[in-house]
Amino acid sequence: MGVIEETFSGHEASRASLDACVKCTICETMCPVAKATPLYTGPKYNGPQAERFRDGASVDNSLEWCNFCGICTLHCPQGVKIAELNEQAAAKMKHQNGVPLRDRLIPLTVLEGKVLSPIAPLANWGLKQKPIRFAVEKIIKVHREAPMPEAHTETLSKWIRKHKPATKPTKGPVIFFQGCAGGYFETETSVKSIEVLEHLGYEVLVPKQGCCGLAQQSNGLFKQSTKTLLDICDKIIARGKDIPVVSSSGSCIGMIKHEAHEIMGVDDPRLHDVSVRSFDFCEFLMEEYRNGEIDLSDLKPLDLTVPYHQPCQVKSQGMGFPAVQLMELIPGVKVLESNEPCCGIAGTYGLKAERYDVSQKIGAKVFEHMREYNEGVGVCDTETCRWQITKSSGVKIVHPVWLLHQALGLSDNLLD
Predict the structure, then answer these.
(1) Strand pairing class (245-247; 203-205)
(2) 1-97 in CATH: which number?
(3) How far apart are CA 330 and CA 408, in angstroms?
(4) Which CATH number fits domain 297-408: 3.30.70, 3.40.630, 3.40.50, 3.30.2010?
(5) Across 259-416, where does the E strand assignment appear?
(6) Using 50, 70 and 90 to split pLDDT, how confident is the model at 16?
(7) Which helix (H) or strand (E) holds 174?
(8) Cβ-proximal residues to 369 (8 Å cutoff; 6+ apart), any chain
(9) Neighbours of 56 (CB within 10 A)
(10) Contacts of 62 (CB under 8 A, 6+ apart)
(11) Enclosing H/E stretch for 262
């Protein structure tokens, strides 16, 4: 299941919802892309209306401007799978017209991490050089101003090999799902996540792992994405049944919990096994806290107002605002949510040369929110969104675990 050449179950389920559309246009008014450019004719037209005429083929090239943020589906009062229909149709359109080289290269995140990490200082220097970035834009069509991740010589796997927990576990095990960014480019966030879980008493298992396949999916490579995803599921299952899977990569865990099944139609017992026990990091801790499984009464005060943006990939999971709830358990912390639908990056959308300006328009109010309200730091749950907001606002943007890590007395570099 999930292979684009087939009539996959994800499409069948999404198509079954289209007749529920009453043309209320709520999706149109909420769409961040339609507000940013007239080149996109909107989710209602590209979704339920156009789907009636597709018969397996795409009929509207304006669909390529959709960033698949999922805001339309989230706000539809009738339950129409608008974003899912759009992404499925876009994948078909891409296969009809040919997948560009760029869209095949961008998803190779694990390979990029393996290549860049050994030469991290040189790689980071090179990616800041304007002539190099200009050449990359001309050849590969990744915009010269698009945010780039920072490579690290010490990958998470290297850190794991020499890491010894500070205390013995007093609770059962959890499996930490790092995602490719968490393994190579956001290693400090992964380290802080593991250390917090261990400090709270959990035994943290970190299986060998790579990409979840989300970048492949968002670029229309459903067949490759399905293979990548199920490989991750195999590795997680091999570490034990019924063990919670926790991730501080909000978009990657969303792929396992929601997108793989809803968009690609992956109907595999391995995915079901892993998805039903998968949790976003903040979601997991808040559930454990509410159930009385962890004690957070000794958190040190942080007299800090933090602007926060919940990414669209996290919104689509329908779990509310666990990050806000968790951060506000820290005495002195006040969280100001952006109330904006999307920062514009949408995974790899904002990297692409022809979409960069639209991406910046979509995220403009998020950037403004971070600049106006930060007291040295802002917060966001997913990696690419943090890179986008940091680059475009000039504000240091971190995962919520950074605040918790410092409030537990495990670090003091939040405002460095």
Answers:
(1) unpaired
(2) 1.10.1060.10
(3) 9
(4) 3.40.50
(5) 278-280, 304-309, 333-337, 378-380, 397-398
(6) confident
(7) strand 173-176
(8) 307, 309, 336, 338, 340
(9) 9
(10) 39, 40, 41, 46
(11) helix 260-262
pTM (2 decimals)?
0.94
* Residue whose tokens read 């380290």: 191
Tell me the per-residue pLDDT of 269-302, one tens digit each, with 9 for 90 and over. Answer: 999 999 999 999 999 999 999 999 999 999 999 9
Tokens, residue 215: 């970048």
Q: Where are the domains of the chain?
A: 1-97, 297-408
Helix axis angle for 356-373 and 383-393, nearest 10°, is 80
Return d(Cα 271, Cα 217) in angstroms, integer. 15
Q: Is 300 exposed, middle or buried (0-12, 13-18, 19+ CB in 10 A)?
A: exposed
Neighbours of 40 (CB within 10 A): 21
- Per the listing, tokens 């009385």 go with 292
**Terminal Cα distance for the chain, rounded:** 47
Residue 205 DSSP SS3: strand
- pLDDT tens for 61-90 read 788 899 999 999 999 999 999 999 888 888
Using CA atoms, how far residue 250 sits from 74, 306, 311, 400, in Å, is 17, 19, 8, 11
* String of DSSP letters for 51-101: HHHHTTS---GGGGG-----HHHHH-TT---HHHHHHHHHHHHHHHH---H
CA distances to 87, 105, 281, 316 from 321, in Å: 25, 34, 12, 12
- Can you read off the two tokens belonging to residue 234? 């195999």
| Residue in the structure block whose two tokens are 């500070």 | 166
Tell me which residue of 35, 38, 107 sits closest to 72, measured CA to CA. 35
Close Cβ partners of 394 (under 8 Å, ≥ 6 residues apart)? 371
- The pair phi, psi for residue 309, each rounded to 5°, is -125, 125
